[in-house]
């Protein structure tokens, strides 16, 4: 679902700046679930506006107003008005797992091993 701005007066978001934007709504997320706040692709592509802590997580026990931290990564100021669609929200299950403490992960048991960023290449 789209989240809309509930700012009482317009906010100018200058390049490199961030603001916490009110949405005017609060929700009750069921136990075992979370709400995730995600950017709108059009805002990101056209204006460089995105959600700073993507995805933002709203825990099931939070009851306050949903706020969205937007940042302007673009080159021009962007104005946020009342009713503007600023982010998207999805509800997702939270998977709880039990961790096993081990001394060594045996990095050589997978093809990738300990190699990180960019190690799998670009080609398919």
Automatic annotation (TrEMBL):
Q: Which residues cross the membrane?
A: none
Q: List the protein's name.
A: dUTP diphosphatase
Q: Name one GO molecular function term.
A: dUTP diphosphatase activity
Q: Which InterPro entries match?
A: dUTPase, dUTPase-like, dUTPase-like_sf, dUTPase_trimeric
Q: Which example biological process does GO assign this protein? A: dUMP biosynthetic process
* Origin species: Ehrlichia ruminantium (heartwater rickettsia)
Family assignment from sequence similarity: Belongs to the dUTPase family.
The dUTPase-like domain is annotated at 7-121
What is the enzyme's class at the highest EC level? hydrolase
Q: What is its EC number?
A: 3.6.1.23
Q: Which Pfam families match?
A: dUTPase
PANTHER family documented for this protein? DEOXYURIDINE 5'-TRIPHOSPHATE NUCLEOTIDOHYDROLASE
Query: According to its UniProt record, which reaction does this protein catalyse?
Result: dUTP + H2O = dUMP + diphosphate + H(+)
Keywords carried by this UniProt record: Hydrolase, Nucleotide metabolism
